[in-house]
Amino acid sequence: MKKLIVALALVFAGSAVVHADHHKGDKADKQAIRAAVFDYFHGQGEASAERLFRAFDAENSTMVGVVSGENGGESVRSWKNMTDVLNNWAANENPPGGDRDGEIISMNMVDDRLAVVLFRSADRFYDALTLGKVDGQWKIIAKAFVLQ
Questions:
Q1: Alpha-carbon distances of 57 from 1, 41, 98, rounded to whole Å
Q2: N- or C-end of the chain: fewer Cβ atoms within 10 A?
Q3: How far apart are CA 109 and CA 97, in angstroms?
Q4: pLDDT tens per residue across span 89-105
Q5: What is the distance between the alpha carbons of residues 133 and 114, in angstroms, rounded to a whole number?
Q6: DSSP-derived pairing of the beta strands 114-121 and 102-110
Q7: 99-129 per-residue burial string, b: 16 or more CB within 10 A, e: under 16
Q8: Which of 67, 80, 42, 78 is nearest to 146 (CA)?
Q9: What's the per-residue H, E or C state across the chain?
Q10: How far apart are CA 92 and CA 106, in angstroms?
């Protein structure tokens, strides 16, 4: 019985993955997702509040990251108020600039309203960004990152 349950779970999980992978999304959605991701990336690099707040649903989004801990190890840290985070990024008096190297590694869409983007920023970090489409606009609703 246990083997049957495992086999059924694998079949259903596999079909869900295939369904998600086959969904391509339309060109306009992909462009809008890409624009939101690069508004975030360049907005942080330029310390641009306009671009950052255009990219994120600041009031409702969150961020979590694996960061260096106090004892030399790693720990998980979370930020539940992205409005404060975005304002801090925009207040950076010495931003790294907009010419930084960054790229979208992958983009997957589900149901025309949810997307997951893996993003690489030069040699600084990797992001897993979750975007939601609300009232026709793509916004980052969650960010998870690891430092490189």
A1: 45, 15, 22
A2: N
A3: 30
A4: 999 999 888 778 899 99
A5: 6
A6: antiparallel
A7: eeebebeebebeeeeebbbebebeeeeebbb
A8: 67
A9: CHHHHHHHHHHHHHHHHHHHHHCCCCHHHHHHHHHHHHHHHHHHHHCCHHHHHHHECCCCCEEEEEEECCCCCEEEEEECCHHHHHHHHHCCCCCCCCCCCEEEEEEEEECCCEEEEEEEECCCEEEEEEEEEECCEEEEEEEEEEEC
A10: 29
Report the residue count for the chain: 148
Q: Contact 18/60 with Cβ under 8 angstroms?
A: no
- d(Cα 106, Cα 91) in Å, to the nearest integer? 30
**CA geometry: angle at 80 spanning 78 and 85, to 5°?**
90
pTM, whole model, 2 decimals?
0.80
